[in-house]
Design brief:
Blueprint (H helix, E strand, L loop, with lengths): L31 E5 L3 H13 L3 E5 L2 H11 L3 E4 L8 H9 L8 E6 L4 H10 L3 E4 L4 H16 L3
Parallel strand pairs: 1-2, 1-3, 3-4, 4-5
Length: about 160
């Protein structure tokens, strides 16, 4: 320990505050993904797994937030639970299909409802795929790879 004179300059330089740095661009091949599930743990787990693959992921826990985030972010893939508290996932999917910029999005029903009638209703509502919970993450990754490949090829 060494005492400093009273008039000694501070040890650390003073730095003027600056504007926050812009967010880094998404890596090549990364997709914009929206996860919608009222089960917070399930939604955050899927979000974390997808972000580990460098995708840009937004999360909503009800239909109203899902529609708002879809309109703002125009996700390329949406994992959407059917049983939401404020509207059905079927209605949310149909609404997303009608949004400008969402026509080419891949909508995936990710739900506990897996009967044939549920799958048929998913297709009628505009879903491209129907996965039953708990979904195997390998299946989720395969879907993401297919979408990324289509994006790269321009289709």
């Amino acid at each position: 320990w060494l005492p400093l004179p009273q008039d000694a300059a501070p040890l650390l330089p003073t730095v003027a505050p600056s504007a926050p740095a812009p967010a880094p661009a998404a890596p090549a091949g990364a997709l914009r993904i929206l996860v919608v599930d009222d089960n917070v743990d399930a939604a955050e787990t899927l979000q974390a797994l997808l972000e580990m693959s460098a995708h840009v992921v937004s999360v909503a826990h009800d239909g109203a937030d899902a529609l708002r985030l879809a309109a703002e972010g125009l996700p390329q893939v949406v994992f959407l639970d059917i049983g939401l508290p404020d509207m059905s996932g079927f209605d949310a999917a149909a609404a997303m299909r009608g949004m400008p910029g969402m026509e080419g999005a891949t909508l995936v029903a990710l739900t506990g409802w897996g009967a044939e009638q549920d799958r048929r209703r998913s297709s009628e509502a505009g879903f491209d795929h129907h996965l039953t919970k708990p979904a195997d993450f390998g299946m989720v990754e395969n879907l993401i790879r297919e979408v990324a490949a289509r994006q790269r090829s321009g289709g």
